[in-house]
Amino acid sequence: MIDILAISGSLRAASTNRALVAALARNAPSGCRVSVYDGLGRLPIFNPDDEGGRTPGEATTFIDAVTRADGVIVSCPEYAHGVPGGLKNALDWLVSRDAAVGKPAMQVHASPRSQFARAALAEIMKTMSFDLFDGPELTITLLGKRQHEMDEVLADVVNIASMRDTLSAFSSFVRAR
Ligand SMILES: Cc1cc2nc3c(=O)[nH]c(=O)nc-3n(C[C@H](O)[C@H](O)[C@H](O)COP(=O)(O)O)c2cc1C
After folding, report:
1. What is the Å distance from ligand 1's center to 111 Cα?
2. Which pLDDT score is estimated for 53?
3. Which of 116, 112, 127, 18 is nearest to 73 (CA)?
4. Which residue, judged by its Cα, is nearest atom 6 of ligand 1?
5. Count of structural domains within the chain
6. Domain containing 125: what range?
7. CATH number at residue 112
8. How far is CA 51 from the centre of its chain?
9. How do residues 88-118 score in pLDDT, each as one tens digit?
10. With pLDDT > 90 as the criterion, what percentage of the chain qualifies?
11. pLDDT at residue 123, as a whole number
12. Closest Cα to residue 133, out of 177, 96, 99?
């Protein structure tokens, strides 16, 4: 079983990125399990003075979840052409640990825009030694949609097949590592 940790970079209750990672969890193909990390908003602001024995519990929970996962999927909005602070903060908690080193990872997208944030996040994750998926990334456009519209798009058979195909391809990438 390939265990994947999925992270939404948005804290918004009606988040399109959150809806996308939840749909990935619902539609995982056999042999692949996707769990959603929902603690981003509870993580304290990273401070290098609070590492080692002083690491806060929420940060330890996140670091352990990444360590245990076989791979990580991130779905992230773009704020002012950058990566939202909450997600960057979470990633900062991993920088001086082994959790991210060689960990297979991929981005998925709920917005067809956000090219700056996609590139910035790839650069950050590469620098942290995540092993970035080299296949095609999944984009399911949910930008600007209300809940019932998102539900419709995410229940579409073509989109369900795309989610399954993406997770299968990513699982093969993980297995080959
Ligand atoms: C503060 C803020 C800044 C944003 N800046 C950008 C931007 O620079 N480029 C862009 O494409 N979208 C931008 N957006 C739009 C969001 O990226 C878009 O609404 C996103 O898909 C929302 O994700 P969510 O539904 O998961 O919260 C911004 C939104 C907010 C709230």
Report:
1. 9
2. 87
3. 18
4. 79
5. 1
6. 2-175
7. 3.40.50.360
8. 23
9. 999 999 999 999 999 999 999 999 999 999 9
10. 98
11. 98
12. 177
144 Cα to the center of ligand 1, angstroms = 10
Residue 114's nearest CA partner among 152, 75, 86 is 75
At position 166, the amino acid (one-letter code) is T
Task: Give the Cα separation of 3 and 38 in Å (integer).
Answer: 16
What count of other Cβ atoms lies within 10 Å of the Cβ of residue 22?
A: 19
Which segments in the chain show pLDDT lower than 70?
A: none
Which residue's CA is the nearest one to ligand 1's atom 1? Answer: 79
Chain CA centroid to CA 1, Å = 19
Tell how far the Cα of 86 is from the centroid of ligand 1, in angstroms.
13
Element (H, E) at 88: helix 85-92
> What does the pLDDT read at residue 30?
93
CB-ligand 1 contact for 80 (6 Å cutoff): yes
> In a mutational test of the pocket of ligand 1, which residue from 78, 87, 142, 150 has the highest number of ligand atoms less than 8 Å from its CB?
78
Q: In whole angstroms, what is the distance from residue 159 CA to residue 141 CA?
A: 10
Q: Is 113 in the pocket of ligand 1 (CB under 6 A)?
A: yes
The answer, as to whether pTM is greater than 0.90, is yes
Cα 92 to ligand 1 centroid, rounded to whole Å:
21
User: What's residue 72's pLDDT?
Assistant: 98
Closest residue to atom 22 of ligand 1, CA basis? 77
